Q: What sequence folds into this?
């Protein structure tokens, strides 16, 4: 999982948008999806127009309360959102924390916390980041990308970046697992993704 980038200058904040279960939240959802470049916060898979998706409340206890706000919201695919545990854990590492990627460590397609980092461990458990099926899917995705890169004889950083840029330009919906790509191929895939209009 990648750190979630929150922009305090986004019009969600300046327009003072709120979430309310009893009304249409599509404008809020569209703005969150734009900020996330159409990628699910939890699975890091592309959310296409055919994918069921939700506005996720990271801390579900805040939903529809006065304390629910922009930092608690993100767009996620529906099924992974349903699989998130209902047992809120504290203390917990917030997904937008500045040191998120130093505390949620990626290694061999799984996520780990440093020993004694209860906040990071609680986040990993809450989101079931190492679910066997998810880890297997990440592993197979990275394996296929490595095979394609090797088959084409690509070795330099520029060659690898060009490979992924072609994928983004031609078939972005098949880009997945942004953090795994970042760590395995040593490229900033997030910066390569287009900003949505």
A:
């Amino acid at each position: 999982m990648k750190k979630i980038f929150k922009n305090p200058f986004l019009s969600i904040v300046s327009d003072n948008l709120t979430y309310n279960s009893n009304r249409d939240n599509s404008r809020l959802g569209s703005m969150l999806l734009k900020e996330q470049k159409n990628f699910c916060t939890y699975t890091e898979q592309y959310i296409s127009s055919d994918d069921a998706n939700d506005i996720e409340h990271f801390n579900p206890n805040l939903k529809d309360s006065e304390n629910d706000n922009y930092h608690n919201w993100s767009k996620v695919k529906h099924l992974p959102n349903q699989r998130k545990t209902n047992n809120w854990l504290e203390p917990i590492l917030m997904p937008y924390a500045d040191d998120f990627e130093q505390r949620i460590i990626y290694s061999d397609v799984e996520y780990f916390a440093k020993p004694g980092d209860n906040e990071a461990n609680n986040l990993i458990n809450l989101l079931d980041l190492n679910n066997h099926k998810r880890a297997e899917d990440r592993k197979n995705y990275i394996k296929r990308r490595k095979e394609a890169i090797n088959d084409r004889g690509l070795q330099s950083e520029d060659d690898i970046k060009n490979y992924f840029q072609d994928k983004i330009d031609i078939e972005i919906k098949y880009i997945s697992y942004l953090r795994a790509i970042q760590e395995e191929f040593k490229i900033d895939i997030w910066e390569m993704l287009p900003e949505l209009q």
User: Anything to note?
Assistant: The longest strand covers residues 53-57. The longest helix spans residues 132-151.
